[in-house]
Structure formats: C-alpha cells, structure tokens
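Section 3.1: Structural characterization of target chains.
Under the original work plan, the team committed to producing a structural model for every single-chain target entering the pipeline before any wet-lab resources were allocated. The record below documents one such target. The sequence was received from the expression subgroup and is listed exactly as submitted; it comprises 265 residues.
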Amino acid sequence: MIKRVGIAAALGLTSVLTCVSPASAATDIMRAEPFDANKLMMSICNGSTSTSYWKINVQTGELQRLTWQKWAGDKAFPPARPWELFRGHCSYPESTSWTWNGPEKQVSDTLVNCSHRATGNQQIREGGTTTSTTSNSVTASFGIEWTIIEKVLAVEAGGSYTRTWSYSKAKDWSRTTGISVPPRRKAWIAQRPVMRTVRSNPVFHVDEYRWGKTGVNSWRGRGYNQITSYGAYYDAVGNVVNSDGTPSGQIVFRDRGVNSAADCR
C-alpha cells in the first residue's frame, strides 16, 4: 500500500560561490565625511529615480527632504552654516553578483509504502514557488520604498539576469517525476536550489550643490558629481531558473524506514 503525506520541513545547508562584476565609476565617500555616509546614501536613494531636493547639516549628517518650492526658497535665501543644499537623482547599478546553494527543501509529497514485499511505483508532482526577496544594509532616515526598489533593482541592477533569475517575478512551478518506493520505506523528492544575489550600491548623481550663495555641480565642490558609499547597499535575491521557469538545482531522492504505528495505521 502506498500512502501520500504532505510536504515536510526544509533540510540541509549550503556553500557559496562568488563572482564580481565591474564597480561603479562613482566616488566612495564612506570615509570622506564626518557623518555616517552609509545612512546618507540609503536615505537619499530609497527606491526613487526622480529628482529629489535636500538640505544637509554637514557636521552631523542630519537631512531634510525639500519640496521644489522649499528648495527654491532656500536657494534664494540660503540657510546658515553648517546647512547646505543639494539636488539630483539616484541610480542602482549592479556592484557585484554571486550564486550560492540554498538549503535542501522537500518539493514533493511523501510516499509511504506499507507493503512487506511489493515495490511501489508512482508518478509524483514536484512543486513550489520561486523566491524574490530584497534586503538593505543600514536603516534609512525616511524608510525604503520597497515596491519601487524591487522594480528598479530588477531593471537597473539585475537586467542582465532577467531570463535566468526569479527576482521580482516569483511564481508557482510544478513538474512530474516517477519514483519507486521499496517495501517498508517512505520516500520524497527534495531540491538544493541554486540562488543568485545581486548587490547594488546606489549612486547619487549631483545636479546642483550649494552653500551660501555658491553653487556648483559637484558633491561639496570636490569635483566629482556621482557619489556612493560601499557600506550602503541593497541585496536582491532570487532563484536561478531553467528555460522552462523551474528553479535550477540538484534534485535529491530521499527515503527512510516506515514507522509502523505512525505511518501504516
């Protein structure tokens, strides 16, 4: 007699493989400022790619987000030092990417063979949902726009993986496989999925920077107009997928002896 039991908990653990893509041309300001540049970058680049307007205390890093009208007013009547003004927009390029083996996970029901002599042969459905998650390295002052950042990262940071990666488009999948279960054994199918992480250090493109009546088009007048901070990043994680949309990874057949009292009542 073959019995079918629901999917069990995840098993096993994993190893990591890495590969690095070309770095951004932006200038890293992580150690160039007296304030927390990582928090600055996560606060001004929280998902949007539109022009934004800011006032910053260059001693403490305190930020105030401005409307266009407030920007125009502060530009005409500049705030006192140590407050300065800047405007620009963000981009989210790929900084690095790596693949890694996810934890082994059961992807089928469990088949239980309670017979003492007959081997059970049956078609069994494997299935699940591909993964799409996003995380950030430091807390932002104004919160992360998670719905927007997922769409932006999928295009700007992960565009080269769009056909082979489940990020931002997680979906259900299934396939059918034959399995044989020896007498007095129970069996199931598991998978060790291959995952991809794409990391993006956001870049702020300075369109204008002002202190007092002085205006320039570089960050704090230093000659560079693209800034980043290597401790400020987003990690986008998804399955590596096959051409048919199913997750890539090693398929593992598992079995163990039945428990007569629990499995074959």
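The CA atoms of residues 6 and 109 lie 5 Å apart.
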